[in-house]
Amino acid sequence: MYRYDAYDKAMLTDRSNEFRHQVARRLAGEITEDQFKPLRLMNGLYLQLHAYMLRVAIPYGTLSTRQLRRLAWVAKTYDKGYGHFTTRTNLQLHWIKLRDAPDVMDALAEVDLHAIQTSGNCIRNVTADPYAGATADEVDDPRVWAEVIRQWSTFHPEFSYLPRKFKIAVTASAKDRTAARSYDIGLQLRRGRDGALGFEVMVGGGQGRSPFLAKTVRESLPAGWLLSYLEAIIRVYNRHGRRDNIHKARIKILVNSLGVEEFTRQVEAEWAKIDSATSDLPDTELARIRGAFHPNTFQTLPPVSHAFEAALADPDFARFARRNVHPHKIPGYAIVDVSLKAPGQTPGDCSSEQMEAIADLADQYSFGEVRVNYTQNLVLPHVKLDDLPALHAALKAVDLASANIDLITDIIACPGLDYCSLANARAIPVAQAIAQRFADPERAEAIGELKVKISGCINACGHHHLGNIGILGVDKKGEEFYQISLGGSGDNDATLAEILGPAVHFSKVPDAVETLVDTYLSQRQGGERFLDTLRRTGLTPFKEALYADAD
Amino acid sequence: MKVLTANSLTTGEVVFWSRGRWALDFSDGERFADDAVADAALAAAESQPRVVVAPYLIDVEEAAGHWIPVSYRERIRALGPTNTPQHGKQADGHADVQALAAATSAARSSGRVKLIKR
C-alpha cells in the first residue's frame, strides 16, 4: 500500500503542531468558541451529545495493521475502548476529550493517519472498492487513482471553501461496491476496446434531504485527464453552487437545476480552458504512485483447497464460506468479509481488542492488509483458502464470525440520537432490535439478500434512501417514529427507495420489518431476492400488508 | 421548571448548572421555577467561555417523584447512549438514573429552550 513520503509526513507533523497551538489558545481564552469551532472541525473534531467526536480519515478504506493497532491503542487510551466504522469508511471515536485531542493527533500522525478534510466544505476522504487489488473483475487498482485524488485534493487551495462538502468514490470493477451513484462524483474505470483506461464520470449524486442519483457527464474520460476534468467540474460547482441556502448547496442541486446537458456543457467549456500539461498528473508521478500498490507475492496454489473443502462439513463454517468469502483474482486465495454486525451489537462498532485481533489475523493471513467497507464491515482481502478454517475459528473467538453479509442482519445504521447532535431519533437500537428478531442465521439466510439501512435524521448518513428497506427516524411531537421506504439500492442498479406510507412508532419497527419480509416470502418466485420481488410486484402488496390494521 | 446545561470545554462532558458551579449529574442540577432567575444563570454561564461550550436552558418536569428533562434528546444527554448502558452517566445506576431511564411520558422535542437550529 501507499506509504507517506517526506512531504506527506511533514504536512501531518505541521498540521498536528498547528492544532496543538489552536487548542492551547482556545483553552487559554485567547480565541473564542466561534473562532475555534471551524478550526477544530477542519481537524475532524465535532462536539456531539456526550463528548467530542473525532472522525479519523481512512483514505479509500485501506489500513495497514500498524495503523489498525494504533487506532485500537488510541481508542483504549483516550476513548472507551472502541471505535465506530462509518458509511464513509472512516473511524469515529465518540468519547474524545479536547485536552487529549492534540496527543491523539500526534499518535495518529506517527502512523500516517489524520483527520484532515473529514469535515468542512472541502473534498472529503476519497472512498474506493474495498476489494481493490483482490477482485478478479477489476480493470485496474482503483486505489492508485484514489491516492492520486487524495494527494491532489489535500489542502487544495482553490477547493478548500466549496459551497458545501464534496465526496468522491472510485471503482474499477464491473460490480460497484462503493455506491458510486450516490456520490458528488462517482468514477467508474473501464477498459475500452483499444485497451485504454477510461472513467465514466458521474456527477450530482447524494442522499440527505433531496436525494439524487449521479448522472453521467462523460461515458469514457481518458484516465490521464482525470485531474483536469475534476478541476473543471469542481470549478463550475465552486462558481455556481448555491452558497445562500445550505439545503441547496450540494452539487446535486446545481446539476439538477441546470440539467445534466447544460451542466456538462459548462464543464466541457471550462475543461477546454485548462492546460492539461499543468493540471494533469505526469506519467512519472502516476508510475511512482502505482508502484506503491505493487502486487503482493502470492503463492502458486491449486484452485481447490482440500482443507477448505473438508471444513465445509461444519455448518457454521459452510455458512461463513457462503456469505463472507468471495472469489479472489489469484487461484487458491479468497476475499473475506469480517462482519461488524453480530446481532444485538452496534453496527460498525469494533472494540480495541477486536481491532488488535483483526490486525494479528491480517498479518498472519492477509499480507497485513485490512479494508473498510462502506457497509460498516471490514475486509481481509488476500486469504489463502487453506487458511480459511483457522481464520474462521480465530474470528469466532472474538465474536467477529457472523456469517451475515448482505443479509437482513447486516444493517447499516448511523450513530443517531444516541450520539449525534443532528439526529432526531435513534438508529442503533432499531438496528439491534431488527437484527435480534432475525438472529437465527438459517432464517436470515433463507430470506436471502436484503439490505436494511437506517438513518436517525434526514441527512441520511445511514443511507436509508439506498436501502432495500430504508428506515428514517423522525421526531413526531417528541416521540421517535420511523418512516419506511422500499426498493432502494446502492449497487449497479442504483435506485432511490420510495416511501411506503405513514411512519411507525419505535416499538413497532421490528414488527413492520417482519410483515414486509413475510409479504416478500409469500410473493417470492424462484430464487428472487427481496428487491427482485418488490420490483416485480411494486409497492402495493407491501403497503397493504403493513397498513392493513391501520384502516 | 428549567435546568441549565452545557458541555465542558476541556472534556466535552455534559454538565448542569448548580448554584454557580457545574455538576456532572442531572439530579444535582439546579431547577429554576422563575424564568428571570434562569436567564440570569444562563448569562452567568455564557460569561464562562473557558469552562463550558454553548450553555442553554432545558425544560424539566416531575414524574413519579423524580425530575426529568422533557425532551428525549436531553434525557439521552443526561444518561448516556441507550445502546451502551455501561457508558456515560447512567453507568452508576442510582435511583435518579433509573427514573430517567424509565420515563415514558411523551417527550417534546422543544425541550431545549430558545433552540436555534444549526
Question: Could you write a compact summary of the structure shown?
Answer:
The complex is a heterodimer of chains A (551) and B (118). Chain A has 551 residues and is α+β, with helices and mostly antiparallel strands.
List the helices and strands and how they pair.
The complex is a heterodimer of chains A (551) and B (118).
Chain A: H1 6-27, H2 33-42, E1 45-47, E2 52-56, E3 62-64, H3 65-78, E4 82-85, E5 91-96, H4 101-109, E6 127-128, H5 142-153, E7 168-171, E8 185-191, E9 197-203, E10 215-222, H6 226-240, H7 251-258, H8 260-273, H9 276-279, H10 283-292, H11 306-311, H12 315-324, E11 325-327, E12 333-338, E13 349-351, H13 352-365, E14 369-373, E15 377-384, H14 388-397, E16 412-413, H15 428-437, H16 441-447, E17 452-455, E18 469-476, E19 479-486, E20 498-499, E21 504-505, H17 509-523, H18 530-537, H19 540-547
Parallel strand pairs in A: 6-7, 7-8, 16-17, 17-18
Antiparallel strand pairs in A: 1-2, 2-5, 3-14, 4-5, 4-13, 8-9, 9-10, 11-12, 12-15, 14-15, 18-19, 19-20, 19-21
Helix pairs in contact in A: 1-2, 1-4, 3-13, 6-8, 7-8, 15-17, 17-18, 17-19
Chain B: E1 2-8, E2 14-18, E3 21-23, E4 31-32, H1 35-46, E5 52-63, E6 66-69, H2 72-79, H3 95-102
Antiparallel strand pairs in B: 1-2, 1-4, 1-5, 2-3, 5-6
